[in-house]
Amino acid sequence: MDVQWDDLKIFLAVARAESLSGAGRILKVDPATVGRRIARLETDLGAPLFAKSPMGYALSDAGQRLMGHAVRVEQAVEGVAEEMAGRSGGMTGQIRIGAPDGAANFVLPQVCARIAEENPDLEVQIVALPRVFNLTRREADMVIAVSPPTAGRLSVQRITDYKLHLAASRRYLRAHPKITRLEDLRGHRVVGYIQDMIFDKELDYLREAGIERVNLASNSVSVQINWVRQGGGIGVVHDFSIPFVRGVVKLLPEAFSLTRSFYLVRHADDRRLERLNRFAAALVEGMRMEVARLEAET
Fold first, then answer.
1. Taking the domain 5-85, which CATH number applies?
2. Which CATH number applies to 161-259: 1.10.10.10, 3.40.630.30, 3.40.190.290, 3.40.50.450?
3. Global confidence as pTM
4. Domain boundaries in the chain?
5. Mean pLDDT by 10-residue block, N- to C-terminus, for the chain (298 residues)?
6. Residue 265 class from Cβ within 10 Å (0-12 exposed, 13-18 middle, 19+ buried)?
7. Where's the HTH lysR-type domain (predicted)?
């Protein structure tokens, strides 16, 4: 049986995109060609690699087994490319980071811009999605998480703590009854998450403030902070986001304050890739400095 790297590359693209069209976009190949190559690979291996449905292409049991081998081949190819390029120069290639949109909007852009400026041949992608990323399927090269995962062959590094407080716009506070204690919040409009779309228990901020009803809800941190900025109501916001929104101030900081942490999550096998190690080190240091700088401004 002769399985080529080109075959595995197409297999990986379909597994990650969960569709022929998505894999075609990744590889810049016609989807029909992708389908033929997958069919040929399945014939060569004597087993179906995907379960096809209207929802897309999901890995079969045989596909799951092949996935681990394919990823290791991919890492070996990347390792050879790194060695040939030499380790003394700047970072090159593409690196994709998955992140919750708070970090993705207010911390990562400036951190990654500085890294990219020092490495002009490096392409950085930030995927801001309010959900947990699947590193096994290689949805991203590394992920910023708000709680450490407990399953899978993953490498987890704590990056930094960050603070959250109640906040409102000055315009809202001028137009509504004064707030001097947590109990006063009951008479105010509240901005927060859509309850059934909270993908991590660490994001259930309002419950810790004793607030159960949310008047203006979104699964996006950016939408929430903009509602607060526009005078929509009171919300729990990241301290590092406040410098970006004029006219928003913290409320009752002595009575209510939350501390959360960011974690860098990578696939364990990626620790052998020097390029990703160097990028991860720069990312962690940059995020620690940027969160501290922004929180100092509040």
1. 1.10.10.10
2. 3.40.190.290
3. 0.75
4. 5-85, 93-160+261-296, 161-259
5. 84 89 89 93 93 88 89 76 60 88 96 95 87 65 89 88 97 95 91 88 83 90 96 96 96 95 88 85 97 94
6. buried
7. 1-60
